[in-house]
Protein backbone atom coordinates (compact mmCIF):
# COMPACT_ATOMS: atom_id res chain seq x y z
CA UNK A 1 0.00 0.00 0.00
CA UNK A 2 1.15 3.54 -0.69
CA UNK A 3 0.44 6.50 1.60
CA UNK A 4 0.32 9.65 -0.53
CA UNK A 5 -0.05 13.32 0.34
CA UNK A 6 -2.95 14.48 -1.85
CA UNK A 7 -3.34 18.05 -0.55
CA UNK A 8 -1.72 20.53 1.79
CA UNK A 9 -2.80 23.71 3.56
CA UNK A 10 -1.67 26.34 6.03
CA UNK A 11 -2.99 29.21 8.09
CA UNK A 12 -1.36 32.06 9.96
CA UNK A 13 -2.88 34.86 11.98
CA UNK A 14 -3.09 38.17 10.10
CA UNK A 15 -0.70 40.13 12.31
CA UNK A 16 2.94 39.93 11.25
CA UNK A 17 5.54 41.40 13.58
CA UNK A 18 8.92 42.41 12.18
CA UNK A 19 12.18 42.26 14.12
CA UNK A 20 12.25 46.05 14.13
CA UNK A 21 8.81 46.14 15.78
CA UNK A 22 10.00 43.67 18.43
CA UNK A 23 13.09 45.79 19.05
CA UNK A 24 10.80 48.65 20.11
CA UNK A 25 9.66 46.52 23.08
CA UNK A 26 12.65 44.37 24.02
CA UNK A 27 16.39 44.86 24.00
CA UNK A 28 17.28 43.36 20.62
CA UNK A 29 17.83 44.41 17.01
CA UNK A 30 16.93 43.31 13.51
CA UNK A 31 20.64 42.81 12.84
CA UNK A 32 21.15 40.49 15.85
CA UNK A 33 18.08 38.37 15.13
CA UNK A 34 18.81 38.01 11.41
CA UNK A 35 22.50 37.23 11.87
CA UNK A 36 21.93 34.70 14.69
CA UNK A 37 18.78 32.98 13.35
CA UNK A 38 17.77 34.04 9.84
CA UNK A 39 14.40 35.27 11.18
CA UNK A 40 12.92 38.49 9.78
CA UNK A 41 9.36 38.40 11.14
CA UNK A 42 6.78 36.15 12.73
CA UNK A 43 2.97 35.90 12.81
CA UNK A 44 1.39 36.43 16.22
CA UNK A 45 -2.20 35.48 17.10
CA UNK A 46 -4.53 37.97 18.76
CA UNK A 47 -5.95 37.18 22.19
CA UNK A 48 -9.15 35.62 20.84
CA UNK A 49 -7.31 33.10 18.65
CA UNK A 50 -6.29 29.68 19.97
CA UNK A 51 -4.41 26.84 18.31
CA UNK A 52 -7.53 25.01 17.12
CA UNK A 53 -8.71 28.15 15.28
CA UNK A 54 -5.54 28.19 13.17
CA UNK A 55 -5.63 24.42 12.81
CA UNK A 56 -9.25 24.43 11.60
CA UNK A 57 -8.45 27.09 9.01
CA UNK A 58 -5.43 25.11 7.78
CA UNK A 59 -7.61 21.98 7.61
CA UNK A 60 -10.29 23.79 5.57
CA UNK A 61 -7.62 25.18 3.23
CA UNK A 62 -6.23 21.67 2.76
CA UNK A 63 -9.56 20.07 1.93
CA UNK A 64 -10.39 23.01 -0.37
CA UNK A 65 -7.15 22.45 -2.31
CA UNK A 66 -8.00 18.75 -2.71
CA UNK A 67 -11.39 19.73 -4.17
CA UNK A 68 -9.90 22.46 -6.37
CA UNK A 69 -7.13 20.27 -7.79
CA UNK A 70 -9.54 17.31 -7.99
CA UNK A 71 -7.24 14.93 -6.13
CA UNK A 72 -10.44 13.58 -4.55
CA UNK A 73 -13.77 12.59 -6.08
CA UNK A 74 -15.96 14.35 -3.51
CA UNK A 75 -17.63 17.63 -4.51
CA UNK A 76 -17.95 19.54 -1.26
CA UNK A 77 -16.00 20.21 1.88
CA UNK A 78 -18.72 18.59 4.00
CA UNK A 79 -18.71 15.43 1.92
CA UNK A 80 -14.89 15.26 1.98
CA UNK A 81 -14.73 15.80 5.76
CA UNK A 82 -16.97 12.76 6.21
CA UNK A 83 -14.37 10.57 4.47
CA UNK A 84 -11.65 11.32 7.05
CA UNK A 85 -10.77 8.35 9.22
CA UNK A 86 -8.27 10.11 11.46
CA UNK A 87 -7.20 13.61 12.47
CA UNK A 88 -3.80 13.92 14.14
CA UNK A 89 -2.32 17.20 15.34
CA UNK A 90 1.22 17.70 16.55
CA UNK A 91 1.11 20.53 19.07
CA UNK A 92 2.73 21.72 22.27
CA UNK A 93 0.35 24.64 22.63
CA UNK A 94 -3.06 22.93 22.67
CA UNK A 95 -6.18 24.96 23.42
CA UNK A 96 -6.50 23.05 26.72
CA UNK A 97 -3.97 21.10 28.75
CA UNK A 98 -4.75 17.40 28.95
CA UNK A 99 -8.13 17.39 27.29
CA UNK A 100 -10.00 17.95 25.09
CA UNK A 101 -7.36 17.51 22.42
CA UNK A 102 -6.99 20.18 19.77
CA UNK A 103 -7.68 17.48 17.18
CA UNK A 104 -11.14 16.88 18.68
CA UNK A 105 -11.96 20.57 18.33
CA UNK A 106 -10.91 20.49 14.68
CA UNK A 107 -12.86 17.27 14.12
CA UNK A 108 -16.01 19.02 15.38
CA UNK A 109 -15.32 22.18 13.38
CA UNK A 110 -14.92 20.20 10.17
CA UNK A 111 -17.90 17.93 10.82
CA UNK A 112 -15.58 14.92 10.40
CA UNK A 113 -18.12 12.60 11.96
CA UNK A 114 -16.32 9.38 10.99
CA UNK A 115 -12.86 10.34 12.23
CA UNK A 116 -10.87 9.49 15.33
CA UNK A 117 -8.91 12.46 16.64
CA UNK A 118 -5.86 12.91 18.85
CA UNK A 119 -2.91 15.18 19.49
CA UNK A 120 0.71 14.12 19.41
CA UNK A 121 3.22 15.56 21.84
CA UNK A 122 6.56 15.40 20.06
CA UNK A 123 7.26 19.15 20.00
CA UNK A 124 8.83 20.35 16.77
CA UNK A 125 9.00 16.77 15.43
CA UNK A 126 5.20 16.49 15.81
CA UNK A 127 4.41 16.47 12.09
CA UNK A 128 7.11 13.91 11.27
CA UNK A 129 5.82 11.66 14.07
CA UNK A 130 2.20 12.35 13.03
CA UNK A 131 2.72 11.35 9.43
CA UNK A 132 4.18 7.98 10.43
CA UNK A 133 1.47 7.40 13.06
CA UNK A 134 -1.36 8.20 10.66
CA UNK A 135 0.25 6.09 7.96
CA UNK A 136 0.45 3.14 10.35
CA UNK A 137 -3.18 3.56 11.37
CA UNK A 138 -4.36 3.64 7.75
CA UNK A 139 -2.34 0.57 6.82
CA UNK A 140 -3.60 -1.43 9.82
CA UNK A 141 -7.23 -1.61 8.69
CA UNK A 142 -8.62 -2.10 5.24
CA UNK A 143 -11.56 0.20 6.02
CA UNK A 144 -9.37 3.23 6.76
CA UNK A 145 -8.40 5.37 3.80
CA UNK A 146 -7.79 9.02 4.65
CA UNK A 147 -6.23 11.07 7.43
CA UNK A 148 -5.49 14.68 8.09
CA UNK A 149 -2.07 15.21 9.66
CA UNK A 150 -1.32 18.60 11.10
CA UNK A 151 1.06 20.72 13.12
CA UNK A 152 -0.47 23.73 14.86
CA UNK A 153 0.87 26.15 17.43
CA UNK A 154 0.24 29.41 19.21
CA UNK A 155 3.69 29.54 20.75
CA UNK A 156 3.44 33.26 21.43
CA UNK A 157 1.41 32.24 24.54
CA UNK A 158 4.24 30.00 25.76
CA UNK A 159 7.21 32.33 25.60
CA UNK A 160 8.44 34.73 28.22
CA UNK A 161 8.32 38.05 26.38
CA UNK A 162 10.97 39.39 28.79
CA UNK A 163 13.47 36.70 27.73
CA UNK A 164 15.09 38.01 24.57
CA UNK A 165 17.03 34.76 24.13
CA UNK A 166 13.83 32.80 23.37
CA UNK A 167 10.90 35.11 22.55
CA UNK A 168 12.44 36.31 19.28
CA UNK A 169 12.59 32.74 17.96
CA UNK A 170 8.98 31.67 17.83
CA UNK A 171 5.82 32.37 15.82
CA UNK A 172 2.23 31.13 15.44
CA UNK A 173 0.73 29.08 12.61
CA UNK A 174 -0.71 25.79 11.40
CA UNK A 175 -0.02 23.46 8.50
CA UNK A 176 -1.72 20.30 7.28
CA UNK A 177 -1.46 17.41 4.86
CA UNK A 178 -4.32 15.23 3.64
CA UNK A 179 -3.03 11.70 3.17
CA UNK A 180 -4.65 8.79 1.39
CA UNK A 181 -3.96 5.08 1.23
CA UNK A 182 -3.74 3.90 -2.37
CA UNK A 183 -2.91 0.53 -3.92
CA UNK A 184 0.73 0.14 -4.96
CA UNK A 185 1.37 1.16 -8.53
CA UNK A 186 4.27 0.07 -10.75
CA UNK A 187 6.47 2.64 -9.03
CA UNK A 188 6.97 2.92 -5.27
CA UNK A 189 5.31 6.17 -4.18
CA UNK A 190 4.13 8.16 -1.19
CA UNK A 191 5.75 7.80 2.22
CA UNK A 192 8.87 5.77 1.45
CA UNK A 193 10.73 5.84 4.76
CA UNK A 194 10.45 7.32 8.23
CA UNK A 195 12.98 7.51 11.03
CA UNK A 196 11.78 8.42 14.53
CA UNK A 197 14.25 9.03 17.35
CA UNK A 198 14.32 10.49 20.86
CA UNK A 199 16.96 11.45 23.39
CA UNK A 200 15.26 12.01 26.73
CA UNK A 201 18.61 12.68 28.38
CA UNK A 202 18.31 16.19 26.90
CA UNK A 203 14.79 16.73 28.27
CA UNK A 204 15.77 19.67 30.45
CA UNK A 205 17.47 21.63 27.68
CA UNK A 206 14.12 22.59 26.15
CA UNK A 207 11.35 22.53 28.70
CA UNK A 208 8.20 24.20 30.00
CA UNK A 209 8.89 23.79 33.71
CA UNK A 210 5.65 24.92 35.26
CA UNK A 211 2.05 23.77 35.07
CA UNK A 212 2.47 19.99 34.70
CA UNK A 213 2.30 17.26 37.36
CA UNK A 214 6.05 17.61 38.11
CA UNK A 215 5.78 21.25 39.01
CA UNK A 216 2.13 22.31 39.25
CA UNK A 217 0.85 25.72 40.15
CA UNK A 218 -0.31 25.58 43.76
CA UNK A 219 -3.37 27.09 45.37
CA UNK A 220 -2.58 30.55 46.69
CA UNK A 221 0.65 30.87 44.72
CA UNK A 222 1.28 34.28 43.20
CA UNK A 223 2.05 33.69 39.53
CA UNK A 224 4.48 36.11 37.88
CA UNK A 225 4.70 34.48 34.49
CA UNK A 226 2.51 31.96 32.69
CA UNK A 227 4.15 28.62 31.76
CA UNK A 228 6.89 29.39 29.26
CA UNK A 229 9.66 27.83 27.20
CA UNK A 230 13.05 27.60 28.90
CA UNK A 231 15.96 26.69 26.69
CA UNK A 232 19.66 26.04 26.78
CA UNK A 233 20.25 27.54 23.35
CA UNK A 234 23.76 26.19 22.85
CA UNK A 235 22.83 22.63 23.86
CA UNK A 236 19.78 22.64 21.58
CA UNK A 237 21.82 24.09 18.72
CA UNK A 238 24.44 21.33 18.98
CA UNK A 239 21.78 18.62 19.27
CA UNK A 240 19.91 19.99 16.25
CA UNK A 241 22.95 20.05 13.95
CA UNK A 242 23.73 16.45 14.91
CA UNK A 243 20.09 15.40 14.50
CA UNK A 244 19.78 16.83 10.98
CA UNK A 245 23.05 15.21 9.91
CA UNK A 246 22.08 11.82 11.34
CA UNK A 247 18.58 11.80 9.82
CA UNK A 248 19.72 12.78 6.33
CA UNK A 249 22.28 9.97 6.33
CA UNK A 250 19.86 7.44 7.78
CA UNK A 251 16.99 8.16 5.37
CA UNK A 252 19.26 8.02 2.32
CA UNK A 253 20.80 4.75 3.50
CA UNK A 254 17.39 3.17 4.19
CA UNK A 255 16.14 3.99 0.70
CA UNK A 256 19.48 3.25 -0.92
CA UNK A 257 19.65 6.56 -2.78
CA UNK A 258 22.05 9.50 -2.94
CA UNK A 259 21.21 13.10 -2.09
CA UNK A 260 20.99 13.96 -5.80
CA UNK A 261 17.77 11.94 -5.99
CA UNK A 262 16.17 14.28 -3.43
CA UNK A 263 14.50 17.44 -4.79
CA UNK A 264 14.02 19.26 -1.48
CA UNK A 265 15.08 18.80 2.10
CA UNK A 266 12.40 20.47 4.22
CA UNK A 267 13.86 20.88 7.69
CA UNK A 268 12.11 22.14 10.78
CA UNK A 269 12.57 25.91 10.61
CA UNK A 270 14.29 26.61 13.93
CA UNK A 271 17.39 28.52 12.91
CA UNK A 272 18.93 29.04 9.47
CA UNK A 273 22.38 28.61 11.04
CA UNK A 274 21.51 25.09 12.25
CA UNK A 275 20.57 24.11 8.70
CA UNK A 276 23.68 25.77 7.21
CA UNK A 277 25.97 24.01 9.69
CA UNK A 278 24.38 20.61 9.03
CA UNK A 279 24.51 21.19 5.26
CA UNK A 280 28.19 22.04 5.49
CA UNK A 281 28.93 18.93 7.53
CA UNK A 282 27.07 16.76 5.01
CA UNK A 283 28.49 18.51 1.97
CA UNK A 284 25.00 19.33 0.69
CA UNK A 285 24.48 22.64 -1.14
CA UNK A 286 22.35 25.21 0.69
CA UNK A 287 19.87 25.38 -2.26
CA UNK A 288 18.73 21.82 -1.50
CA UNK A 289 17.24 22.98 1.83
CA UNK A 290 13.92 24.83 1.68
CA UNK A 291 13.86 27.69 4.17
CA UNK A 292 11.02 30.09 4.92
CA UNK A 293 12.06 30.92 8.50
CA UNK A 294 12.65 34.50 7.39
CA UNK A 295 8.86 35.07 7.27
CA UNK A 296 7.49 32.68 9.89
CA UNK A 297 10.19 32.17 12.58
CA UNK A 298 9.94 28.84 14.46
CA UNK A 299 6.34 27.56 14.45
CA UNK A 300 7.33 24.22 16.04
CA UNK A 301 5.22 21.31 14.73
CA UNK A 302 3.63 23.60 12.13
CA UNK A 303 6.85 24.56 10.40
CA UNK A 304 7.27 21.51 8.14
CA UNK A 305 3.66 21.33 6.86
CA UNK A 306 3.64 25.12 6.31
CA UNK A 307 6.80 24.76 4.23
CA UNK A 308 5.37 21.79 2.30
CA UNK A 309 2.24 23.80 1.52
CA UNK A 310 4.25 26.76 0.24
CA UNK A 311 6.23 24.49 -2.07
CA UNK A 312 3.14 22.60 -3.19
CA UNK A 313 1.06 25.70 -3.98
CA UNK A 314 3.95 27.28 -5.86
CA UNK A 315 4.20 24.01 -7.79
CA UNK A 316 7.81 23.67 -6.78
CA UNK A 317 7.04 20.07 -5.89
CA UNK A 318 5.82 17.94 -8.74
CA UNK A 319 4.61 14.36 -9.05
CA UNK A 320 7.57 12.02 -8.73
CA UNK A 321 9.79 14.41 -6.75
CA UNK A 322 11.41 13.01 -3.61
CA UNK A 323 11.10 15.25 -0.56
CA UNK A 324 12.85 14.76 2.76
CA UNK A 325 11.42 16.26 5.95
CA UNK A 326 13.51 16.57 9.12
CA UNK A 327 12.11 17.46 12.53
CA UNK A 328 13.89 18.07 15.84
CA UNK A 329 12.88 19.65 19.11
CA UNK A 330 11.78 19.31 22.71
CA UNK A 331 11.86 15.88 24.28
CA UNK A 332 14.34 15.76 22.81
CA UNK A 333 12.77 14.26 19.69
CA UNK A 334 13.96 14.06 16.13
CA UNK A 335 13.20 12.21 12.93
CA UNK A 336 12.39 12.51 9.26
CA UNK A 337 10.25 11.28 6.38
CA UNK A 338 11.19 10.48 2.82
CA UNK A 339 8.23 11.10 0.52
CA UNK A 340 7.82 10.49 -3.19
CA UNK A 341 5.22 13.07 -4.25
N1 LIG B 1 19.09 40.24 20.93
C1 LIG B 1 20.30 40.73 21.22
N2 LIG B 1 21.21 40.06 21.95
C2 LIG B 1 20.87 38.84 22.39
C3 LIG B 1 19.62 38.27 22.11
C4 LIG B 1 18.71 39.04 21.36
N3 LIG B 1 17.49 38.58 21.04
N4 LIG B 1 19.56 37.05 22.68
C5 LIG B 1 20.74 36.84 23.30
N5 LIG B 1 21.52 37.93 23.11
C6 LIG B 1 22.88 38.14 23.60
C7 LIG B 1 23.18 37.37 24.84
O1 LIG B 1 22.73 38.05 25.98
C8 LIG B 1 24.69 37.26 24.78
O2 LIG B 1 25.24 38.48 25.23
P1 LIG B 1 26.59 38.49 26.12
O3 LIG B 1 27.64 37.88 25.25
O4 LIG B 1 26.77 39.93 26.37
O5 LIG B 1 26.24 37.67 27.31
C9 LIG B 1 24.98 37.16 23.28
O6 LIG B 1 23.79 37.67 22.61
C10 LIG B 1 25.24 35.76 22.81
O7 LIG B 1 24.24 34.92 23.37
P2 LIG B 1 24.20 33.40 23.07
O8 LIG B 1 23.02 32.79 23.76
O9 LIG B 1 25.55 32.79 23.32
O10 LIG B 1 23.93 33.43 21.50
P3 LIG B 1 24.04 32.26 20.46
O11 LIG B 1 24.99 32.64 19.40
O12 LIG B 1 24.20 30.92 21.11
O13 LIG B 1 22.58 32.29 19.80
C11 LIG B 1 20.45 31.23 19.86
C12 LIG B 1 21.45 32.07 20.62
C13 LIG B 1 19.23 31.01 20.73
C14 LIG B 1 20.04 31.94 18.58
C15 LIG B 1 21.13 29.87 19.49
O14 LIG B 1 21.74 29.30 20.62
C16 LIG B 1 20.16 28.89 18.92
O15 LIG B 1 19.59 29.10 17.86
N6 LIG B 1 19.93 27.74 19.58
C17 LIG B 1 18.98 26.78 19.14
C18 LIG B 1 17.60 27.27 19.49
C19 LIG B 1 16.50 26.52 18.83
O16 LIG B 1 16.54 26.31 17.65
N7 LIG B 1 15.50 26.12 19.59
C20 LIG B 1 14.35 25.48 19.12
C21 LIG B 1 14.67 24.11 18.69
S1 LIG B 1 13.24 23.31 18.17
Secondary-structure map:
Elements: E1 2-11, E2 16-18, H1 19-23, H2 30-37, E3 41-43, H3 51-68, H4 77-81, E4 84-90, H5 102-110, E5 116-120, H6 126-140, E6 146-154, H7 164-167, E7 172-182, E8 190-198, E9 206-208, E10 229-231, H8 233-255, E11 264-267, H9 272-282, H10 293-296, H11 303-313, E12 322-329, E13 333-340
Parallel strand pairs: 4-5, 4-6, 11-12
Antiparallel strand pairs: 1-7, 2-3, 6-7, 8-13, 9-10, 12-13
Helix pairs in contact: 3-5, 8-9
The structure holds coenzyme A.
Structure in words:
This protein has a 5-stranded mixed β-sheet, sandwiched between helices. It has a 4-stranded mixed β-sheet with strand order 8-13-12-11, sandwiched between helices. Helix 5 (102-110) links the parallel strand 4 and strand 5 (116-120). The protein has helices at residues 19-23, 30-37, 51-68, 77-81, 102-110, 126-140, 164-167, 233-255, 272-282, 293-296, 303-313; strands at residues 2-11, 16-18, 41-43, 84-90, 116-120, 146-154, 172-182, 190-198, 206-208, 229-231, 264-267, 322-329, 333-340. It is globular. The protein is built from 11 helices and 13 strands. Helix 3 crosses helix 5 and helix 8 crosses helix 9 (272-282). The protein is an alpha/beta fold. The protein folds into 2 domains: 2-182, 3-Layer(aba) Sandwich (Peroxisomal Thiolase, Chain A, domain 1), CATH 3.40.47.10; 190-340, Thiolase/Chalcone synthase (Peroxisomal Thiolase, Chain A, domain 1). It starts with a strand and ends with a strand. Bound molecules: coenzyme A (COA). Coenzyme A is lined by residues 28, 32-33, 36-37, 124, 164-165, 168, 231, 233-234, 236-237, 240, 270-271, 298, 329. Residues 28, 32-33, 36-37, 124, 164-165, 168, 231, 233-234, 236-237, 240, 270-271, 298, 329 line the site of coenzyme A.
Amino acid sequence: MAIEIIATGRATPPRRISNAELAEKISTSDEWIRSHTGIGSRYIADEQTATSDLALQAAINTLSLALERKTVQEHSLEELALTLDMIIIGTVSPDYYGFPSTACLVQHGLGALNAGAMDISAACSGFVYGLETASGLLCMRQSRKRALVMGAEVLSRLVDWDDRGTCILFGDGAGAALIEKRPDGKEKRGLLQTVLRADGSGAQSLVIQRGGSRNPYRRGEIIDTPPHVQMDGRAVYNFAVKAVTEIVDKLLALEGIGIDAVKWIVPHQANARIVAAAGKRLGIPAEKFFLNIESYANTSAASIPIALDELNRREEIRTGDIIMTIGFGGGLTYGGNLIKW
